[in-house]
Amino acid sequence: MLSDSNLTAILLTLKLAVIVTLILLLIGTPIAWWLARTRSWWKGPISAVVALPIVLPPSVLGFYLLIVMGPNGPVGHLTQSMGLGTLPFTFPGLVVASVLYSMPFVIQPIQNAFEAMGDRPLEVAATLRAGPLDRFFSVVIPLAKPGFMTAGVLGFAHTVGEFGVVLMIGGNIPGVTRVVSVQIYDYVEAFEYTDAHWLAAIMLVFSFLTLLAMYLFNPTTPRR
Amino acid sequence: MKLSNTLVALLFTLASSLACADEIDVAVAANFTAPMKAIAADFEKDTGHKLLLAFGSTGKFYAQIKNGAPFKVFLAADDATPAKLDKEGMTVPGSRFTYAIGSLVLWSAKPDFVDAKGEVLRKGQYEHLALASPKLAPYGEAAMEVMEKMGLAASLAPKFVLGENIAQTQQFVVTGNAELGFLALSQVMKDGKIASGSAWIVPASMHTPIRQDAVILSAGKGNAAAEALMKFLKSPKAAAIIKSYGYAL
Questions:
Q1: Element (DSSP H or E) covering residue B163
Q2: Sign, Cα dihedral of B156, B162, B165, B167
Q3: Mind listing the pLDDT tens digit for each residue in A33-68?
Q4: ipTM rounded to 2 decimals
Q5: d(Cα A156, Cα A23) in Å, to the nearest integer?
Q6: Are B72 and B24 in contact (CB under 8 A)?
Q7: Which tops the pLDDT comparison, A122 or A74?
Q8: Which of B37, B122, B200, B246 has the CB geometry, 3.0–4.6 Å to B189, for a possible disulfide?
Q9: What is the rounded CA–CA span in Å between residue A35 and residue A113?
């Protein structure tokens, strides 16, 4: 049922999704916090930039990444001068692309949770002499937990479901950039429908279970 | 009243234009993009028919045709796929013929990177070698044959980046993300010579000939434009264009 190459693709996809989700939770939390709290004029433009990947077709993102990270692009110049080579066709390149691509799906739920919390819990904590860090970790994080859960699941699932960007900058290298969605595409193009069916069904069931878990453990209406 | 009049007039023009000149969907292999655009311009001028061209990989077109795509004519990148469609009764029998024989080229966007004998392949001073997926594209299959003949297939495999079709492969090389790659000669040839970069035109003896067949699909049965296009592809005028892009005939 699962050939070696399918197993490789599945493991690669999971590895990519885990790394991307962790990175996004790390860099997304401060951005979400800033967006939820700021009164700066910059809130509008930054929010728009964060939301861009929802609207942009993957072909646009893939095209720009291919140019910008390529040997003649600004990011390509930078990575080359650091002795790292260029990012397209590499696993780190996929990570960078996926972080950009899945960013809104992680930042927005966290930001919503922060905003819904209001100032009150923080003010109360402050009167109890909790320092800023203490307030963040023992008040904000627990209160925003549902937001973090949603962010984690959506970031993970969205990265697993990524296709267009990977196709454009990946180069279809087994074990490096050939993720499940690309593998399925290959099967369909090569008329290998049996393999395509197996892998596609696994994706379908996996995606459904992931979302089901999110809605079961993290209902949108609070149970009180 | 006025609106319905305009509508009737519009429908009438539409109907009359349909009657004298057809507009047909044509599926064209990605490697034949440039010559087909030139041929279509001439064809439309000469016959008054209109062509709606779709460019892509032969494998994808096959799946789409099997699932009811409206293409009337198919210009494939190989001869196996049209033959398969023939056998499956998806074509107009007897319409199939070879419209071009493809040439393979090893190309780099950088001048002086690829030498005239392809020795650059052996030296291995590059990170990425682009080719079309051998599983999906005849030009990728031919590239593998060449490397196998040179005894390099296994040692170069870690450097492979695979394009989904030959157009995407070219995009990898043009943007410089892959230093060099195996492409269709037609993609880098203009007016009978290599337009830019550096290239090794792979001798035809190093791989199975890339015979590209065209066929009228069942949807195009009895269609005047489809038949006119097949005839036009066999004309000396089309042959001159096809040859100028580096194909043999």
A1: strand B160-163
A2: negative
A3: 999 999 999 999 999 999 999 999 999 999 999 999
A4: 0.77
A5: 11
A6: yes
A7: A74
A8: B246
A9: 12
Give me the count of residues in chain A.
Answer: 224
pLDDT digits (tens, 9 = 90+) for A136-173: 888 888 999 999 999 999 999 999 999 999 998 998 88
**Least trusted range by pLDDT, from A211-215, B10-14, B127-131, B210-214:** B10-14
Q: How far is B239 from chain A (nearest CA, A)?
A: 30
pLDDT of residue B63: 84
Mutation for testing the B interface, residue in A172, A185, A186, A193 having most B CBs under 10 Å: A172
CATH 1.10.3720.10 fits A4-38+90-217, yes or no: yes
Q: In the predicted model, what is the mean pLDDT of chain B?
A: 90
- Taking 60 as the threshold, does the pLDDT of residue A120 lie above it? yes
| Alpha-carbon distances, residue B45 vs A207, B22, B24, B55, B195 (angstroms) | 52, 13, 15, 21, 27
- Cβ partners under 8 Å of residue A104, min gap 6: A50, A51, A52, A53, A54
Question: How many whole angstroms from its chain centre is CA A186?
Answer: 24
Q: Do B177 and A88 touch (CB under 8 A)?
A: yes
Q: Provide residues of B within 8 Å CB-CB of chain A.
A: 57, 59-60, 62-63, 127-128, 130, 133, 135-136, 160-164, 168, 171-172, 175-178
Distance from CA of B54 to the nearest CA of A (A): 16
Question: Which domains are seen in chain B, by residue range?
Answer: 2-101+209-244 (3.40.190.10), 104-201 (3.40.190.10)
CA distance B116 to A143: 68
Q: What is the mean pLDDT of residues A22-37?
A: 96
